[in-house]
UniProtKB/TrEMBL annotation:
Keyword Transferase attached: yes
One annotated GO molecular function: transferase activity
UniProt xrefs under InterPro entries: BLH_phosphatase-like, FAD/NAD-bd_sf, FAD/NAD-binding_dom, Prot-tyrosine_phosphatase-like, Sulphide_quinone_reductase
Top-rank taxon: Bacteria
Pfam families linked: BLH_phosphatase (PF04273), Pyr_redox_2 (PF07992)
NCBIfam families attached to this UniProt entry: TIGR01244 family sulfur transferase
SUPFAM superfamilies: (Phosphotyrosine protein) phosphatases II, FAD/NAD(P)-binding domain
The protein's name: TIGR01244 family sulfur transferase
């Protein structure tokens, strides 16, 4: 038997034999559902035989046959009813288990989110993307045929989505483009570090989404439920379907707060904060101002995360504020990093280490935050050092700045677009999908090995726009992305180490060394971050003005 668990209450399997009944009983199952019609194959036992054997073993039995390829709404509903009526756990079977998994998926559609259903079946080895549209429609066969159709559909109206829409519209003004995003507000997330450091106010980092959608681009204010790349379709929540000639996927990533036990319940109080949320960044500054003695912990989860320097940016700005107030000698600053290095590009580490020493920071590598008890002010870390047994450490804190674990959004991870790790699978140079020629991706959601920063999206957007435009013209890709990312490390108020690098950690400075030496803290880099980058973002990048972001042409070496 090859039994695959879908939930605690249901497992599915291929055809069972009469000899398997005893083992099914021994495994703890209390009921069996047969979804295979009799006489599909000469060697299969009839449902009456299976029922008799099941009942003899003390198991309940139900027969809900499904003809291959014809899963009716009525049978799916009956399957859901059976799960509520039969004692669990239940084993359902057909020839391969696929029909049983499909029935479960459709029966759960009214009560479970589509990504949750797709994830559960995918983990069991069954791909339900073929019925995603029905699941999105509450488990019922859709009757809506009035699907919208666009030349280009862009999923996600964050930094990458709006920028690529504007860049594409500038190249091809006549294109019919749709942007899909349910959010009302667009955030300038790089500014949240500055909010947490008392430099920016929160309102400087937010604008209404409607004010930023490029002129002539349709805004579909909805969430995406699933992708049907074989049919050039995107399924929205509520089962509306949007068709496309070309698709650009850039919904960002998911902040997985739930992965740290007790964290969500205590965020924004008990001294627990995070600059990774708009509403919490002001609380960071409130805590920094209110702390005069005690322990402040700054955590960093395993990679990948958006802006890998942000965890320590918060730490440096806090340390600087405590130094200026003359209280830093009474504050124990701990940097607990799940990784094994201070920063992934070694050229910038010496400058950062000087600030670690200046603020008296204790570096704790291979420490991954797994639980927070806010009222007790205790944080639990899993410690996994190389060549050592794993342990856990519980640490008291007065202030805890948390960076949550991060992953691709649920609807991406369970889609046909994802690689094994759940990220959109692209060619790292052209940013075109490896399996679907009319799909591209940029920003935090795709799997190219670059830093996930807004600066990276600023360079990626023109590359994607250029290559989509070339594809429309019937040409091969013409632009390539070199992995550029930028991380302005705010080491003190008024100075920044401007880390700029590409694939493999190669340095990619934007300015001559006499103006900004990125490996050293400079006032010029601070002015860039504080005064220049916000208007470059709002008035340049999001409007398709590719300042300092001209796409690099693909070079073909001769032979």
């Amino acid at each position: 038997m090859d039994i695959k668990k879908i939930t605690d209450g249901l497992s599915v399997s291929p055809q069972i034999a009469l000899d398997d009944i005893a083992a099914i009983k021994a495994a703890g199952f209390r009921a069996i559902i047969c979804n295979r019609p009799d006489a599909e194959a000469p060697d299969q036992p009839g449902q009456e035989e299976v029922e008799a054997a099941a009942q003899a073993a003390g198991l309940e039995f139900r027969f809900l046959p499904v003809t291959p390829g014809i899963v009716t709404d009525e049978t799916a509903s009956a399957f859901g009813t059976a799960l509520t009526e039969l004692p669990g756990p239940v084993l359902a079977y057909c020839r391969t288990g696929t029909r049983s998994a499909t029935l479960w998926s459709l029966s759960q559609a009214p009560t479970r989110p589509l990504p949750e259903i797709l994830a559960a079946t995918k983990a069991a080895g069954y791909d339900m993307n073929g019925v995603a549209r029905r699941i999105a429609n509450g488990g019922k066969t859709p009757t809506d045929t009035g699907d919208a159709k666009f030349d280009v559909v862009i999923v996600g109206a964050g930094a990458g989505g709006i920028a690529v829409a504007a860049s594409l519209k500038a190249r091809k003004p006549g294109l019919d483009i749709a942007l899909i995003d349910p959010a009302d507000i667009h955030y300038y997330q790089p500014g949240w570090t500055m909010v947490g450091g008392g430099i920016f106010t929160p309102d400087q980092t937010a604008k209404t989404m409607g004010s930023l959608i490029p002129k002539g681009v349709h805004w579909i204010k909805s969430a995406v439920a699933a992708f049907e790349p074989a049919d050039n379709a995107v399924v929205l929540d509520g089962c509306r379907v949007v068709k496309y000639d070309r698709l650009i996927v850039c919904p960002g990533l998911k902040l997985d707060w739930d992965r740290v036990e007790g964290l969500k319940e205590t965020l924004g109080r008990n001294g627990v904060t995070s600059n990774y949320r708009y509403d919490l960044a002001p609380y960071t500054w409130e805590l920094v101002q209110g702390l005069s003695r005690g322990r402040a912990i700054f955590s960093q989860p395993p990679m990948p995360i958006k802006c890998a320097g942000a965890p320590q940016k918060a730490m440096y700005l806090s340390g600087d504020a405590w130094l200026r107030r003359g209280v830093i000698k009474d504050i124990d600053i701990q940097f607990n990093n799940a990784g094994g290095v201070l920063f992934g590009v070694k050229d910038y580490v010496p400058a950062l280490e000087k600030y670690v020493e200046k603020y008296g920071v204790n570096l704790n590598f291979f420490h991954n935050l797994i639980a927070v008890d806010g009222p007790a002010k205790k944080a639990t870390f899993a410690v996994q050092k190389p060549d050592a047994e794993p342990t856990t450490v519980v640490t008291d804190f007065d202030m805890l700045h948390v960076v949550p674990p991060q992953c691709a959004p649920d609807f991406i991870r369970v889609s046909p677009l994802a690689d094994a790790a759940g990220w959109v699978d692209v060619d790292q140079a052209t940013l075109r999908h490896k399996s679907y020629d009319n799909i591209w991706s940029l920003g935090d959601v795709m799997n190219a090995p670059n830093a996930k920063t807004a600066a990276a999206a600023r360079i990626q957007a023109p590359v994607v726009a250029e290559n989509v435009a070339a594809d429309i013209d019937g040409r091969s890709p013409v632009a390539q992305y070199d992995g550029y990312g930028s991380c302005p490390l705010t080491v003190e108020r008024g100075k920044i180490v401007l880390a700029e690098f590409g694939y493999g950690g190669a340095l990619k400075p934007s300015f001559p060394k006499w103006l900004v030496d990125g490996t050293k803290p400079t006032r010029a880099a601070w002015l860039l971050k504080e005064k220049m980058l916000p208007p470059i973002y709002w008035k340049g990048m999001l409007r398709g003005k590719e300042w300092m972001a001209k796409p690099e042409k693909i070079t073909v070496s001769g032979g």
